[in-house]
Design goal:
Number of domains: 1
Order of helices and strands: EHEHEEHEHHEEEHEHEEHHEHEHH
Organism: Saccharopolyspora elongata
CATH topology: TIM Barrel
Shape: globular
InterPro entries: Bact_Lucif_Oxidored, LLM_FMN-dep_put, Luciferase-like_dom, Luciferase-like_sf
Keywords: Monooxygenase, Oxidoreductase
Radius of gyration: 20 Å
Protein name: LLM class flavin-dependent oxidoreductase
Strand order of the largest sheet: 3-2-1-13-10-9-8-5-4
Domain Luciferase-like: 1-294
């Protein structure tokens, strides 16, 4: 099972001292966090994609390419690649280039994002969000799998005898996760192609997450990709830890109360009860995270959001130390002991390449 962190790249004022980091500081902090993720033995670092303040990660492959040059093991991913407003040709080219630079340590998560105004900024209509996601991804898959593409659709100009360059590393496209909080159509899309399905698992109660993952698993089996419990599932999560749970609650409360995403809503206690947000000791985070398996089954990737709401970099790095030293080692051991042998690992470039070579050898017999 893979463990990692994802960032949304928000620039938020620290409510405890009124200080707002500059965009440059926030970008450098995200890089520092990615390097820390490798240092403490995590598997994945994923960045979001936004094109509006107060967010800074408008060019994920630029950041991930820089991180690739400074890391050796870390899988570099996205917590959203906007399949609706990005040109599929550009996605195909950018991530294939990143694949080569990172020696295959790349996958990505397709999503529609949560910012309505981004659609007209890139010449699209938000009312076409689902059809855009379906058509654009179908084209992207073809661009990665066919050397010469002839294509015509509804939302972009036709392609005639087009070859996307560079070609995917070793002829193996990056593995794709489809991220969704609320859209069953996206779970269906992931299942249809046999791709991964990632549920954000931050704002919604477990019953909603369970319904979405169950739908994906059933449809994955329906399309013949394997048994339902072999479907590739990822979950988000949100934690804040201190050795003592009372200290964690006291320290995190002002950040929660003033956070743009949930400040002014339910209390911290209500939110932690009703959603997967965990604020407490490392053991509480372990227990809560192990509990995810009870309603989504055995899954392949767990990413945590830890650098948001104005938390200073020093605090985030302390959180990562706790995650790497006290939480993830226990989670690895416990999840592995419970996972049946027939449930696959998260796909990597190496495993996808091995599967391709095995299939080629089988055909040659």
């Amino acid at each position: 099972m893979q463990f990692g962190i994802f960032t949304v790249g928000d620039v938020t004022t620290d409510p405890t001292n009124g200080r707002t980091p500059s965009e440059a500081e926030r970008i450098k902090a995200m890089v520092r966090i990615a390097l820390k993720a490798e240092e403490i033995g995590l598997d994945v670092f994923a960045t979001g994609e936004h094109h509006n303040p107060p967010f800074v990660p408008s060019s994920p492959t630029t950041m991930l390419g820089y991180v690739a040059a400074r890391t050796e093991r870390l899988v570099l991913s996205t917590s959203t690649t906007l399949i609706t407003t990005n040109d599929p040709v550009k996605i195909a080219e950018d991530f294939a280039m990143l694949q080569h630079l990172a020696d295959g340590r790349v996958d990505l998560m397709m999503g529609r994002g949560n910012t309505g105004p981004v659609y007209p900024w890139f010449g699209q209509d938000i009312r076409q969000g689902i059809p855009l996601a379906v058509e654009n991804y179908d084209l992207l898959r073809r661009l990665w799998r066919e050397d010469v593409v002839d294509w015509e659709g509804k939302f972009r100009t036709p392609l005639q005898s087009f070859t996307s360059t560079p070609r995917p590393l070793d002829g193996v496209p990056p593995f794709v996760w489809h991220g969704s909080i609320r859209s069953p159509e996206i779970a269906e899309q992931a299942a249809y192609y046999g791709d991964g399905f990632f549920h954000n698992n931050i704002f919604w109660p477990k019953e909603h997450t369970q319904r979405m993952v169950d739908l994906y698993r059933r449809r994955f089996e329906h399309y013949g990709h394997g048994a339902a419990d072999q479907a590739i599932v990822g979950l988000g999560g949100q934690v804040f830890m201190r050795k003592n749970s009372q200290d964690a609650v006291r320290e995190f409360r002002p950040y929660f109360d003033h956070a743009p995403v949930y400040g002014g809503g339910p209390s911290l206690e209500e939110f932690t009860e009703q959603t997967p947000l965990t604020v407490g000791s490392p053991q509480e985070v372990i227990d809560r995270t192990l509990g995810f398996r009870e309603y989504v089954g055995d899954y392949q990737r767990q990413l945590f959001l830890m650098d948001h709401a104005g938390l200073p970099l020093k605090t985030v790095l302390e959180q990562l130390d706790l995650l790497g030293e006290e939480v993830v080692p226990v989670l690895r051991k416990e999840f592995e002991s419970m996972r049946p042998a027939h449930v696959p690992d998260a796909p990597t470039h190496a495993s996808l390449l091995a599967a391709k070579e095995a299939k080629k050898a089988e055909v040659a017999k």
